Amino acid sequence: MSGQEIDLKKRRFLTNATSVVGAVGVGFVAWPFLSSWMPSARAKAAGAPVDVDISKLEPGQLVRVLWRKKPVWIFKRDTTTLANLEMFTDEDLADKDGTKDSKSQQPAYITQSHRAIKAEIAVMVGVCTHLGCSPTYRPELGAADLGGDSWKGGFYCPCHGSKFDLAGRVYAGVPAPTNLVVPPYHFVSDSLIRVGVDPKAS
Ligand code: FES
Q1: What is the pLDDT of residues 10-69, one digit of tens each?
Q2: Is the CB of 136 under 6 A from ligand 1?
Q3: What's the CA-to-centroid distance between 58 and ligand 1, angstroms?
Q4: Which own/partner pairs from 138-145 qualify as long-range (CB within 8 Å, at least 24 positions apart)?
Q5: Is the distance from the beta carbon of residue 128 to the nearest atom of ligand 1 less than 6 Å?
Q6: Domains of the chain: residue spans and CATH
Q7: 113-167: pLDDT as tens digits
Q8: Band of the pLDDT at 103, cuts 50, 70, 90?
Q9: Which atom of ligand 1 is nearest to the CA of 160?
Q10: How many CB atoms within 10 Å of residue 131?
Q11: 20 lines ligand 1 (CB under 6 A)
């Protein structure tokens, strides 16, 4: 695609931007490319919702978008991952059922252990609850550097070693005190998520 075509596309997108921060396709995973699709800084600063097209999201795939200047992860979990989430115990996790910090870390309508509206689609703010680094996505089972057989996939924060499972629940005994934040969101359709707006407000 020529530079002229890119400029034309970008201009058309910015012209069409309204209160919603444009639909972000699943293919746009890389940060630099994503940034080029984000509209004005003014719209982002205002906390406009972000629409994310998940029609092409495959199990295990994670897409990152920006919402209120924070990274938000949307990723797809398969049945094995969901089953593994049920295997964690109170000894493994600091707040397995989200009862200790549920008010601050997730909307009231997120009540199940998988911490999502639809079990297979996870949505969470990708900011470590210790000091704000962005953890690394480590979905592979049994990663040798993260505990071997006991590692069921999750997120690892390299800053001070905090670990989270694939529901964003924090491991026990790590620096991060609480689970990752689940932002307000809802499904506009089966293939479109709107981050930043509760279901009842849609
Ligand atoms: S910021 Fe993540 S462990 Fe400290």
Answers
A1: 444 333 333 444 455 454 343 333 433 445 556 555 679 999 999 999 999 999 999 999
A2: no
A3: 29
A4: 139/60, 139/62, 139/75, 139/81, 139/166, 141/84
A5: yes
A6: 3-201 (2.102.10.10)
A7: 999 999 999 999 999 999 999 999 999 999 999 999 999 999 999 999 999 999 9
A8: low
A9: 3
A10: 12
A11: no
CA 92 / ligand 1 centre spacing (Å): 18
- Which pTM value belongs to this model? 0.80
